[in-house]
Amino acid sequence: MSLNAVHEGPHAKLIYMANQIAKFMESKPHAEGVELLAAHINDFWEPRMRRHLFEVLDAGGTNLRPLVLDAAAKIKRPALAA
Amino acid sequence: MKDFIIPDRDFGTPAAKSKQMVTLNIDGFDITVPEGTSIMRAAAEIGISVPKLCATDSIDAFGSCRLCLVEIEGRNGTPASCTTPVAPGLKVHTQNAKLKQLRRGVMELYISDHPLDCLTCSANGDCELQDMAGAVGLRDVRYDAVDTHFRVKNTSGEANPNYIPRDDSNPYFSYDPQKCIVCSRCVRACEEVQGTFALTIEGRGFDSRVSFGAKTDTALSSDCVSCGACVQACPTATLQEKSVIEIGTPERSVITTCAYCGVGCSFKAEMRGDELVRMVPYKHGKANRGHSCVKGRFAYGYASHKDRILNPMIRDSINDPWQEVSWSEAMEFAANRMKGIQTKYGRQSVGVITSSRCTNEETYLVQKLTRAVFLNNNTDTCARVCHSPTGYGLGQTLGTSAGTQDFDSVEETDVVIVIGANPVSGHPVFASRLKKRLRKGAKLIVIDPRRTEMVESPHIKAAHHLALTPGTNVAIVTALAHVIVTEGLFDAAFIQDRCDWDEFQDYAEFVSQPHHAPEAVEMLTGVKAADVRAAARLFATGGNGSIYYGLGVTEHSQGSTTVIGIANLAMMTGNIGRPGVGVNPLRGQNNVQGSCDMGSFPHELPGYRHVKGEAVRDIFEKVWGVQIDPEPGLRIPNMLDAAVEGTFKGLYCQGEDILQSDPDTKHVAAGLAAMECVIVHDLFLNETANYAHVFFPGSTFLEKDGTFTNAERRINRVRKVMAPRNGYADWEVTQMFAQAMGANWNYTHPMQIMEEIALTTPSFAGVTYEKLETMGSIQWPCNEKAPEGTPLMHVDGFVRGKGKFINTEYVATDEKTGPRFPLLLTTGRILSQYNVGAQTRRTPNVAWHDQDVLEIHPHDAEVRGVKDGDFVRLASRSGDTTLRATITDRVNPGVVYTTFHHPDTQANVITTDFSDWATNCPEYKVTAVQVSPSNGPSEWQEEYAAQATKSRRIAAAE
Ligand code: SF4
Ligand code: SF4
Ligand code: SF4
Ligand code: FES
Q1: Cα Rg of chain A (Å, integer)
Q2: What are the pLDDT digits (tens) for B44-63?
Q3: How many structural domains is chain A composed of?
Q4: Are β-strands B823-828 and B895-899 bridged in parallel, bridged antiparallel, or unpaired?
Q5: Has residue A48 been placed in a domain?
Q6: Strand order in the sheet with B650-654
Q7: d(CA B833, CA B830)
Q8: Interval between CA B424 and ligand 3 midpoint (Å)
Q9: Is residue A2 one of the residues assigned to a domain?
Q10: Which of B34, B129, B659, B710 maximizes the CB count within 10 A of its CB?
């Protein structure tokens, strides 16, 4: 699987996807980019994916682009598994 | 609802478009018609049919048969009414002694060179020559022709050199020259309607014959694309559907909609009893205006193919053979499994995939199944893998996720950009309409890595072909914007009026940066800066500018960004909100638009409303009586990831073949194999069914009622012309399954489902089956504000208020070439096959395309020692497969191209799981690959074939 070639670890794909969104949002003013990145993830990522993202973030957010880290506070933490 | 109709009236010549009206008198009746109307058409409008042979209203008059003569008071002679335009105050006589005599003379000549086997002729009852002989009162033929075209031998017993035997090479129609009256209707239809120029008239006078190009060409080996326009235009049995030859003439017809591509052509299904005799494109169909392509007109044989599965089947494990069971057993088995999974693994552990081949009503029910019965939002559709970036990009910039125009709009366009689409193959009827406009002078800009048929074909040549490196769309589109902004070619008045001026300022500053200049990106895109500049200038200043785009735009890691860039281009040049302009996604499958509209995506309820919105949930909660999950559900790739992870266990997949259509086949296979209950609802045991536990047989579009929505947002009726061979229409099957799961659903007709859609979805509020019946079709939004629907969007303002410019920074895909994988693979489709080919492969369309082939540039082939027709191994970082190579300079050096219509090719074993940043639409259009000579199928292909064969076994009935 090619995505795993870019990053390592069980959440490689997720990190890659978050960074991809960040790259688009980086061409906007910083505050707007943070806002829109968080909104995008809240709107399109189902709770399971967001839970995985928080696992990465809580472990220090290695390999995530700075914009993702800056937006973390605005990303909705999913309720525990339904 | 059956619709018994007599053949559409033929007015002889096309309608004139002038607003200037002219009044004249024909046979004592006054009639007022637009200037430019022919006398023949004017007469037809008051019900007088002047005899005719060479005229028909789909093509311009030619005036060769001389049967339509009339007399005009004060004018000499007897002019042909088909070529004579009306003029104010004319007094025309269509019938008198002189005209009668002249017409009989003409008919006598025709008939003397025509075999008189009317009773056994396949066109008996459907022949205009026969009709005209009757109409002019022909009672005897005085000449006995010495030389004829129809006698196999001449009077002295020698072979007749004028006799040409029948050409049966085309699988769908035959050409029998002995019956030809050389009226040239076929030739003109091929030129004017289809735009292929496959037919010509060779020779002169008595020697003139219709020919498929060069002497050696048969219908099949010629340029003919089998659209059937010539067959429809032919007044005799010369060009005729083989189905009519076999069955006889039809006795009734039902109007319905093609189930293949997003053009959504209207057809008359012509029936005898419950046997389909032929499909004839419907003249009043607003998408196709009486034209069609080979798929819609001819390729319906899959409906009665022997591979079709007609009984439900179940099995415990995918290693077991299938067991045929009754519908109720299948439902019980499936419901028990799904309930068990949800009890054990939770509410989120199951989901659905809706189909872009099914009707709106069916799609609505499938997403309702997951939202109201499974109680989660785990619904997705194959539009994910094609047009999801369109939804995102157009939604963000313009405010609605749909094309802005109707197809008629192309008639008024002046400059067309076609980007990442090959309408000639993918959307043939639209291509014909576009070509017609191009032949009348509109200019064309093609942006595509490959020299498609659009770039150059008879009488068409693109003004610019920007043959970019796959994966650099954003760079090109932004460079076009750079030129328009820095050279001051934008439409400031429009932007000030319709968009946010400050936002435009920011955007203008962004695109003006030197690194967006065509010169700066030349190395990246491989397109000469001068060409980009010229194309930008042409688009910005050439009059009405329209953009049509396809999967070559969306299926990239920056698909959404390119869609945004396209909307930016249209807005900055003021090309939105009137006929002839706009942003037009060309949709792949017939109901991609509809399946998106109907809430197939996991974050959106029907009508593109996010599930987080309480007010929206409220509407559905009231109607459905359940609580709706406010969190977005799983998309297809997420479902597969979650399956591999062990949290997603059950799937109901209607009318899709994700194993073949989705990227990274191995990952899809692993995901499916990890599930405990996969329900496939389809016509055939498709590839996905190899991993299924339950099979619900599906019904074809001929066997059910409903609606499809085409690429112009047009809601068209699909009508049942025969009973479902599997017993139930697809919406009934979904309903039975929902009932087995405990839901209290009781729809008795799709009409009621549409009522529920209208009740809950504002853009459909005014849609009813009744209105569809009277109006023929409706373009949404259709509501109080637009009770008759909306042909053009954003006319007085954007749906979102002000149009929004969004920066489009180019980010190179991480799928890069390197020493191991030095070539870029891009994919596409061809005319005669459709999507994964499940239907078209089961029709005689395979005559044109029996396998996928790899196009490779002569230079790349030579250095690899690959010869035309060789088997080659195609390898990427994901996997490898084999197929045959064809050497062509349609592709640039460094680029290879293939289609993905055949499961044996397994092109998606090659594609990676890179995807669009916003929507995860897979990046099908760019994969780094290597090509090398090979002598046969790859290991994966062999393993796969073995698994498939094993999995498709059906246990013998006990
Ligand atoms: S079938 Fe279509 S392409 Fe072929 S000859 Fe007839 S009109 Fe031309
Ligand atoms: S093939 Fe048919 S349409 Fe063509 S010239 Fe002959 S009679 Fe006319
Ligand atoms: S496949 Fe498309 S173009 Fe061809 S007949 Fe059907 S809707 Fe029309
Ligand atoms: S119909 Fe007018 S000349 Fe043939």
Answers
A1: 12
A2: 999 999 999 999 999 999 99
A3: 1
A4: parallel
A5: yes
A6: B323-324, B313-314, B694-697, B677-682, B650-654, B350-354, B379-381
A7: 6
A8: 11
A9: no
A10: B710
Q: What is the CA radius of gyration of chain B?
A: 29
Q: CB contact, 8 Å: A52 with chain B?
A: no
pLDDT of residue A5: 43
Helix (H, G, I), strand (E, B) or coil at A31: helix
The tokens of B867 are what? Answer: 């010869």
Are the C-beta atoms of B161 and B213 separated by less than 8 Å? no
**DSSP-based three-state secondary structure for B831:** coil
**Inter-CA distances, B229 with B51, B234, B289, B438, B773, Å:** 22, 9, 12, 19, 27
Encoded amino acid at B735, one letter? Q
- Counted across chains A and B, CB pairs separated by less than 8 A come out at 76
List the beta strands (DSSP E) in B58-153. Answer: 71-72, 91-93
Q: Which residues contact B428 (CB under 8 A, 6 or more apart)?
A: B225, B227, B261, B263, B293, B294, B295, B831
Pull the structure tokens for residue B59: 């093509």
Can you tell me the distance from the alpha carbon of A76 to that of B335, in angstroms, rounded to the nearest whole number? Answer: 34
DSSP H stretches of helix in B212-261: 229-233, 242-247
The H or E element spanning position B823 is strand B823-828
**d(Cα B206, Cα B109) in Å, to the nearest integer?**
11
Return the half-sphere exposure (C-beta side, CA atoms, 13 A cut-off) of residue B20. 7
Q: How many CB atoms lie within 10 A of CB B1?
A: 12
At A51, phi and psi to the nearest 5?
-60, -45
Report d(CA B879, CA B928) in Å as an integer.
Answer: 11
Q: Is residue A62 part of a domain?
A: yes
Backbone phi and psi for residue B720, each to the nearest 5 degrees, phi listed first: -70, 120
C-alpha closest to that of B381 among B402, B356, B364 = B356
Q: Which amino acid is at A66?
A: P
Distance CA B674, CA B668 (A): 10
- Please tell me the pTM assigned to this model: 0.90
Ligand 3 geometric centre to CA of B267 (Å): 10
Q: Residue with structure tokens 């591509």? A: B261
User: Which residue range forms the structural domain that includes residue A54?
Assistant: 13-74
Burial A42-76 (b: 16+ CB within 10 A, else e): bebbbbbbbebbbebbeeebebbbebbebbbeebe
Q: What is the pLDDT at residue B835?
A: 61
Q: Which residue reads 């009770």 in tokens? A: B787
A17: nearest CA in chain B?
Answer: B917
Residue pLDDT, tens place only, B656-665:
888 887 777 7
Beta strands in B573-710 (DSSP E): 582-585, 604-605, 609-610, 650-654, 677-682, 694-697, 706-709
pLDDT (tens digit, 9 = 90+) per residue, B853-911?
899 999 999 999 999 988 898 888 888 888 889 999 988 898 999 887 776 666 677 87
CB contact under 8 A, B634 and A48: yes
**Which of B161-175, B579-593, B602-616, B822-836 is least confident?**
B822-836
What's the rounded Cα separation, in Å, for the pair B666 and B880? 11
Q: Within a domain: residue A1?
A: no
E-strand stretches of B698-755? 706-709, 714-718
Residues of B in contact with A81 (CB under 8 A): 346, 348
Pick the closest to residue B374 from B598, B649, B674, B683 (CA basis): B649
- Rounded to a whole number of angstroms, the distance between the first and last alpha carbons of chain B is 40
Ligand 4 atom with least separation from CA of B83: 2
Residues paired with residue B828 on neighbouring β-strands, in sequence order: B899
Distance, CA of A75 to CA of A70 (rounded, Å): 10
How far is it, in rounded angstroms, from Cα B240 to Cα B237? 6
3-state secondary structure of B209: strand
Closest CA to B778 of B790, B760, B794: B790
Distance CA B538, CA B168 (A): 46
Taking only residues 920 to 939 of chain B, the set having a beta carbon closer than 8 angstroms to any beta carbon of chain A reads 920
Q: What is the distance in A from the centroid of ligand 4 to the CA of B40?
A: 9
Contact in structure between B57 and B47 (CB atoms under 8 Å): no
